[in-house]
């Protein structure tokens, strides 16, 4: 397998009772990247992450984590990986720090002599020191989420896998997670973070991959993804909407009305050629502007329906 | 990355330590032990109140209580072993894996990584500790109740022989050990059931139902051929420790039968748990 990749998968797939949840996923997550794993709800992000961590057996393909095959080498690899999977999970009757102590004691390579100090540092890092002795039952969802992140940070990690880490957090908490991810990345940790929110990935990540109904539909650096974006668009302000659409479609541009405007992807046409043609066709033009394709356009195009909910 | 590690930790002793300490930090554990402790207290008080005119009736251990307080513990163990003990053991054993799954901690223990075989073993050992804590609780509560409410002295055994009080006390402790061992097979059954589901209450109920079913089958004469292999067949053999001399072969038979269940259901639990998808 290639050097320089923290996560690499080949043809990774999972079928649940005859239904494909993940199909033929080939991820390549470079060492040191902050890698966004983007996709609508139900697109297979969590299932992929479970396979990476050895919780779920793939029905096809293979996964390599930090250079070692999973799940075969889980015992050697997982101590170097911190993970948050599908939300936090803790014993409500134990305090936050007791929960962390328990999970730390499950790691055969974690030193019990430094446990207390490491737990204190991890709680401090996520701003939970004050609630360390409180039962988790009394935590808010946001506090549990932070505790989950603290668990991932109990030891210095080479790779962090964070599944929707900002779920349940308020805007302030979301900002803190972003800062934390930046800090960890600067310290050399590779961060693989999933989300169904594009803005979150755009603000945090250097790389991204996009999932759609179990399939990987794009991956690369954010710049590469932007570069491959759909064309710049022409926005035309005109009282003659129907005529403008007819004229643009005749010129080969799939124009659509959008509020008071007519919008069409330019597809390589020059604005300076199109406008005189429209004027010549008797269309009154009140304003013309072009808009650069955004990452959002690209992702909406890739996933079909944007990033709200997909059943 | 890290300094040399103490070796005990690598074996999973640290995880076993937290498992046991968490078990005894749970209110539920103490509630169950308190309920078990209430059995001898209730029996003792009831006998004390009614003993004036009622002696000589009822099961022999119960009627022996008024004459010797040591029999509070004996009677309570015999009373607890068919249902109360299996009930509490069913709760603990059924909860082992399914409880972690429903809490969402199973995936984090495995990612830690606890290692599936190691986690299974630690879960079994933790539940086994409870197997012994439960009858010991009954014996302690029974003995204290007996000392407070009834005369104590040399103990008249089933065989009619008399042994000194200290000897009787040792036999009572041996009976507690017997009862603890007797519950190990059920613990392994509960552990296996617990690997099959993410719903702990279901695993607990199924385990208790299996314990009851085993005792029902043990009552059917048509099934005499399979009786020696039933999970519960050895449970009431603990009274053999009250004979003179104590019948230790029964103790051995019990241990062997339970070991068989631990091996078979331990293997089934291993086969299931090490290969299944963890989706909770
Ligand atoms: N335990 C399961 N049994 C059957 N289907 C499942 C199970 N878990 C997830 N799925 C299905 O797999 C698909 C992907 O789910 P998931 O990986 O959770 O998506 P995401 O994390 O992107 O929201 C969904 O269609 C979901 O219904
Ligand atoms: Mg998910």
Describe this structure in words.
The complex is a heterodimer of chains A (311) and B (280). Chain A folds into two domains: 5-227, 3-Layer(aba) Sandwich (Rossmann fold), CATH 3.40.50.300; 233-292, Alpha-Beta Plaits, CATH 3.30.70. Mean pLDDT of chain A is 89; it is low at 306-311. With 311 residues, chain A is an alpha/beta fold. In chain A, strand 8, helix 6 and strand 9 form a beta-alpha-beta unit. Chain A starts with a strand and ends in an 8-residue tail after the last helix. In chain A, the strands form three sheets. Chain A has a six-stranded mixed beta sheet with strand order 7-8-9-4-10-11, with helices on both faces. In chain A, strands 1, 2, 3, 5 and 6 form a five-stranded antiparallel beta sheet that branches. Chain A is built from eleven helices and 15 strands. By secondary structure, chain B is mostly helical. Chain B is built from twelve helices and two strands; from the N terminus they run H-H-H-H-H-H-H-H-E-E-H-H-H-H. Chain B has helices at 7-10, 13-23, 27-54, 60-65, 70-80, 84-103, 105-111, 116-149, 165-182, 184-195, 200-219, 248-273, and strands at 155-156, 162-163. In chain B, helix 8 (116-149) packs across helix 10 and helix 10 runs parallel beside helix 12 (248-273). Chain B is globular. The relative contact order of chain B is 0.14. The model of chain B is unreliable at 1-8 (pLDDT under 50). The structure holds adenosine-5'-diphosphate and magnesium ion. Adenosine-5'-diphosphate binds at residues 16, 21, 39, 41-47 of chain A.
């Amino acid at each position: 397998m290639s050097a320089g990749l923290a996560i690499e998968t080949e043809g990774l797939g999972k079928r649940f009772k005859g239904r494909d949840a993940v199909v033929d996923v080939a991820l390549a997550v470079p060492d040191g990247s902050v890698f966004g794993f983007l996709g609508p709800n139900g697109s297979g992000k969590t299932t992929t992450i479970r396979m990476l961590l050895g919780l779920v057996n793939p029905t096809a393909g293979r996964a390599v984590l930090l250079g070692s095959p999973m799940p075969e080498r889980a015992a050697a690899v997982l101590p170097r990986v911190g993970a948050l999977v599908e939300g936090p999970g803790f014993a409500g009757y134990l305090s936050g720090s007791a929960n962390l102590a328990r999970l730390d004691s499950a790691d055969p390579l974690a030193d019990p002599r430094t446990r207390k100090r490491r737990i204190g540092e991890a709680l401090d890092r996520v701003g939970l020191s004050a609630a360390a002795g409180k039962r988790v039952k009394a935590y808010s969802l946001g506090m549990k989420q932070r505790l989950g992140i603290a668990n991932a940070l109990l030891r210095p990690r080479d790779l962090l896998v964070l599944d929707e880490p900002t779920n349940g957090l308020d805007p302030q908490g979301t900002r803190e997670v972003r800062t934390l991810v930046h800090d960890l990345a600067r310290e050399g940790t590779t961060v693989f973070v999933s989300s169904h929110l594009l803005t979150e990935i755009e603000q945090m990540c250097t790389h991204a991959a996009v999932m759609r109904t179990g399939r990987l539909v794009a991956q690369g650096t954010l710049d590469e993804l932007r570069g491959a974006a759909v064309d710049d668009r022409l926005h035309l302000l005109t009282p003659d909407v129907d005529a403008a659409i007819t004229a643009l479609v005749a010129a080969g541009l799939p124009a659509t009305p959008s509020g008071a405007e007519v919008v069409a992807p330019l597809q390589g046409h020059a604005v300076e050629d199109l406008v005189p043609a429209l004027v010549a066709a008797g269309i009154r033009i009140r304003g013309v502007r072009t808009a650069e394709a955004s990452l959002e356009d690209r992702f909406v195009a890739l996933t079909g329906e944007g990033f709200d909910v997909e059943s | 990355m890290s300094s040399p590690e103490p070796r005990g930790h690598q074996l999973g002793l640290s995880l076993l330590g937290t498992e046991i300490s968490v078990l005894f930090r749970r209110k539920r554990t103490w509630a169950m032990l308190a309920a078990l402790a209430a059995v001898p207290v209730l029996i003792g008080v009831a006998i004390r109140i009614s003993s004036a005119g009622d002696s000589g009736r009822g099961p022999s251990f119960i009627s022996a209580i008024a004459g010797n307080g040591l029999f509070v513990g004996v009677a309570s163990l015999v009373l607890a072993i068919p249902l109360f003990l299996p009930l509490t053991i069913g709760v603990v054993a059924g909860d082992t894996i399914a409880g972690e799954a429903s809490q969402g901690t199973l995936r984090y223990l495995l990612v830690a990584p606890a290692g599936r075989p190691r986690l299974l073993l630690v879960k079994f050992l933790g539940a086994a500790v409870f197997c012994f804590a439960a009858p010991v609780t009954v014996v302690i509560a029974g003995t204290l109740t007996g000392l407070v409410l009834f005369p104590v002295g040399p103990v008249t055994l089933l065989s009619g022989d008399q042994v000194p009080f200290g000897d009787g006390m040792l036999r009572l402790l041996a009976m507690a050990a017997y009862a603890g061992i007797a519950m190990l097979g059920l613990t392994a059954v509960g552990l296996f059931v617990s690997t099959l589901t993410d719903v702990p209450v279901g695993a607990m109920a199924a385990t208790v139902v299996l314990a009851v079913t085993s005792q029902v089958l043990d009552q059917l004469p048509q099934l005499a051929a399979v009786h020696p292999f039933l999970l519960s067949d050895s449970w009431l053999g603990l009274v053999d420790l009250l004979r003179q001399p104590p019948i230790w072969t029964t103790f051995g038979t019990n241990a062997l039968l339970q070991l068989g269940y631990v091996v078979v259901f331990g293997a089934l639990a291993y086969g299931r748990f090490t290969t299944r998808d963890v989706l909770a």
